[in-house]
Amino acid sequence: MLRNYRRETFVAMILITPFVAIYGLIFIYPTIDMFMLSFQKAPLIGDGKWVGIDNYTRLGSDRKFDTAIWNTAYFVALSVVPGTFVALFISLGIYRLSGRVQAFVLALFFLPYILPVSVVYRIWDWTLNFQFGIAMHLFDWIGFDRIPIFKVTGWFMPAVALVTIWWTAGFSILLFLAGLRAIPAEIYEASALDNASRWQTFRKITWPLLWPVTALVLTIQLISQLKIFDQVYLFSTGGRPNDNLVMVYYIFQRAFVNNHGGRAAAIAMVLFIIVIVVSVLNFQLMRFVEKKQ
Amino acid sequence: MNAQYAGKINFIGGIITLITICAAVLWAFPIYWGIISSLKPEDEVVRPFIELWPDTLTFQHYWFALTQTQIGRWYVNSIGTAVGVTFLTVTTSMFAGYAISQLTFPFRRTLYWIILASFMVPTQVLIINHFVLIANLGLLNSWAGIILPQLIHPVIIIIYKQFFDQVPKDFREAAVMDNAGEFRILFKVYMPLNWGVTTAVSIVTFIWSWNAFLWPFLAVTKTELMTITVGITQVNDAFGVYYARQLSAAVLAGFPVALAYLLFQRKVTEAITLSAGIKG
Amino acid sequence: MTGISLKNVSKSYGAVKVIDNLSLEINDGELIVFLGPSGSGKSTLLRMIAGLETIDDGSLFIGGEQSHHLAPGQRNVAMVFQNYALYPHMTVRENMEFGLKNIKLSNDEINQRVLNAARILEMDALLDRRPSQLSGGQRQRVAIGRAIVKKPAAFLFDEPLSNLDAALRVRTRVELSQLHQTVKSTMIYVTHDQTEAMTLGERIVILNECRIEQIGTPMEIYTTPRTRFVAGFIGSPSMNIFPVELTKTKNKLEAKLPDGNKISIAHDTLASGEYDLGIRPEAVSITSEGADCQGIVRVVERLGDRTLVYVELTDRSQIIAQDLGTSTIVVGDRVHLAFDSRRIHLFNKNGINALLS
Q1: Is any Cβ of chain C less than 8 angstroms from the Cβ of B189?
Q2: Is B174 on the interface with C (CB under 8 A)?
């Protein structure tokens, strides 16, 4: 096409300027700033002095850092894989339905995802409330002593993982449904003619064909949960935050509670790197598993 | 996996369907329970036995929340900031997405790769520097301060770029032969052809912004400027330890986005599937 | 000088020179067809005239004005796209108005042109509909209407009939011809279909592998093809072409057919050697005496007004002959064939028609 390159560049510059300006201001600049800050001993706001990799080396002996890493890993283990499979099985169930029933059921499963985290918090704080929560009756029926779930360290993470799965499953379900719908009906018809049982159909047909979506869901969940903050923070109110630290919570604490800007930035950088490394490893792992299929 | 073939009585299928429906009801139960509890008077709420329907149905807590607290202001803040985020994100992304998709200019590829690379950066790690930046700009406790860092949504520009890429070249050529300048081509051809995308993306961005917690929480310390999502967790003195009251505030906070979803179900699911596809 | 003129134009895609030093004069007001198979460059040439492809070398004149550096919208040409490219979110009227609004004509002028075009194309009732509510044929008319309102120096049609079904194609062909009479503008029409070319074109430009093979009126191209490609491309069923050996004996030229038979050629200035002999089926008749060759009938196609007879010669090659519609020939018959010596073509090894020089 006969193009006037000068004119195009001019128009393009006008079109991209708002985006680039905002991006530069709130993304590029803060990222660089954070990098620089991590090498300084500085408060949250204000100048600091250069201390090289001091902030990083401190982390080696930082007990809270260890807790944060451990809790984050623990939380990821509790929520990513189970959450994915819960979503998968729910999708399989929804997929079989049709019409208004399907729309209704899907809406019920999906609704939590739409809610803000604070509303989710209120709902579950109430449901699992030690004194009056309806879930406490479950304990009664099983014969356990009631437990103030969010105040007991051993129960805290699993409970938050449960709530998180409840909250985010809708997203994964959508993806799984899209993936299931992409499998042509003829394949199932062929397997029916081949006398495959339900389980065989799932294992040999549905699961392999769905694997790309499953991998995607696992990846998205993994990256998301590494960055978790909101639920942990909220459910820790009135409880034991220091036992429940996850990475972003620790960053928050260092920066906004202890006013250690430089140290917080270093932790943030570490998290940043962890996310990248995990992404890359995950990518390779998925590719590897795909080849094996 | 619908095995409704001739001659087969679908017993197991029926059971699975039943289980699915029951699971759905159970799944949504906490929401139901929260709403129901907010409609009971405080003394009923704390009764030791389970009452699935209120003995006395009352709206007193809602009344209280709406008249005696700052929820009204919080609503305004939420709406204002959500609209701001949505408008700015969608327009800047659409313009830039169009430029990357259709125009040739220096550093085009570089820009695209930087945007792709930014997917890797978790925005949570930037909270420190966002705070410093916004504080230095004097924008803490203001709508601008709440809005600005929320404008990072690289997925939207990628979505627009992909959709603009898919518009058949014929339209562009016809418009060029029709003597349309670049801006006219964007506003009169490409944008109208993608209204569906714009609507879906706008709704989803609005919901994201409404639900945002971490940043609005950090950016605002004065209660009258809080968004409703943050407000209901921060201000306890107005509510005290009144469970039903707190739940009613939560319902008020979640209601608009739930309504938006129920009204625009298809658009919302479309947009979410889109953005996930991009991430993959 | 009016009309459209391409002088020594070349175009390259990267290192590959696609069009090399091509020149072409199109007369004002004529309906000329660019005909050729896929990849022959016909669409590229059209788009170069439109401005949708660059002209890397050479010059283009439209209506006497140098145009190869002008933007597409400025060249005073209008294009009817193969897939119509109607803006789906605009009504028919808005589709037609779009280009006129962009050059800021007055509303009155715009309205007048739109109504005029709608009248010519009999689309008055469709003006407020959207493209999705129209049939294929109607959409095509809107695409043409969009071109008419621009009052261009030339109309460029890019395979306009290819998206229509067979019956509609024939009807629309006739309508396009009538349109040309009404509007009286230069029209450049690109197609791969020789029937369209032969019926519509006042002149045809045959392109093959981005080179012009021949330019001429339909009859010129049919009866005196300049190259072997043109000879084989035009005509349905295609011309019989087979290799022969030309020898001079005394003052006569004789061509030896693959099956050994010899026919005399009424031309004495050719050098002897290997040639391709071309003869159309209607010039090969079934005869009882004076035969040039003989063979066995393998396939008979009865078309009503004529019968095509596929004959296998003694050397296993096939020749298509034509007989009366009422022919009683059946498969398996032994027949004798006579060639009309006035309608024999000889192509040298470079593909050029030797008898035309």
Answers
A1: yes
A2: yes
**CB-based contact B104 A9, cutoff 8 Å:** yes
Tell me, yes or no, if B37 comes closer than 8 A to chain A by beta carbon. Answer: yes
Residue B6 has a pLDDT of 47
Chain B residues 134-173 within an 8 A CB cutoff of chain C: 168, 170-171, 173
Distance from chain centroid for Cα C125: 34
- For the residues C216-238, what does the mean pLDDT come to? 92
Per CATH, C4-232 and C233-356 having the same topology is answered no
Q: Return the CATH architecture of domain C4-232.
A: 3-Layer(aba) Sandwich (3.40)
Structure tokens at A235: 């459910």
Q: Are the beta carbons of B133 and A30 separated by less than 8 Å?
A: yes
3-state helix/strand/coil string of B4-69: CCCCCCCHHHHHHHHHHHHHHHHHHHHHHHHHHHHCCCHHHHCCCCCCCCCCCCCCHHHHHHHHHC
Q: What is the pLDDT of residues A15-45, one digit of tens each?
A: 999 999 999 999 989 999 889 888 888 888 8
Q: List the single residue in C with minimal CA-CA distance to B190.
A: C87
Residue B195, judged by CB atoms within 10 A of its CB (0-12, 13-18, 19+), counts as exposed
Burial bucket for residue A13 (CB in 10 Å: 0-12, 13-18, 19+): middle
Give residue limits of the domains in chain B. 11-59, 63-279
The pLDDT of residue C74 is 86
Q: What is the pLDDT of residues C292-335, one digit of tens each?
A: 888 899 999 999 999 999 999 888 888 999 998 888 889 998 88
Tens of pLDDT, residue by residue over A147-162, are 788 888 888 899 999 9
Give the start-to-end residue ranges of the domains of chain A. Answer: 5-50, 61-292
Contact: C50, B181; criterion CB under 8 Å: no
pLDDT at B236: 67
Cβ atoms of A221 and A157 within 8 Å: the answer is no
Confidence label for B23 from pLDDT (cuts 50, 70 and 90): very high
Of the candidates C51, C74, C81, the beta carbon closest to that of B174 is on C81
Indicate the burial class of B203 (C-beta count within 10 angstroms; 0-12, 13-18, 19 or more).
buried
Q: Which residues pair with C346 in a beta bridge?
A: C277
Residue C265's closest CA among C346, C210, C338? Answer: C346
The Cα A149–Cα A128 span in angstroms is: 7
Given an 8 Å threshold on Cβ–Cβ distance, is B28 in contact with A171?
no
The architecture (CATH level 2) of B63-279 comes to Orthogonal Bundle (1.10)
A61-292: CATH topology is: MetI-like fold (1.10.3720)
Decide if A95 touches B, using CB distance below 8 A. yes
Which of B173, B177, B186, B199 to mutate to probe the C interface, most C CBs <10 Å? B177
Where are chain C's structural domains?
A: 4-232, 233-356
Minimal Cα distance from A4: which residue of C? C71
Residue of B nearest to A260 (CA): B128
Report residue A4's pLDDT band, with 50, 70 and 90 as the boundaries: confident
Amino acid letter, residue B268? V
pLDDT at site C357: 58
May I ask the CATH class of domain C233-356? mainly beta
Please tell me if residue B116 touches chain A, with a CB cutoff of 8 Å. no
Per-residue confidence (pLDDT) for residue B1, from 0 to 100: 45
Q: What are the phi and psi torsion angles at B12 (to 5°)?
A: -65, -40
Which residue from A181, A176, A163, A178 is spatially nearest to A113, judged by alpha carbons? A163
Are the beta carbons of B125 and A271 separated by less than 8 Å? yes
Between residues C10 and C254, the one the model is more confident about: C10
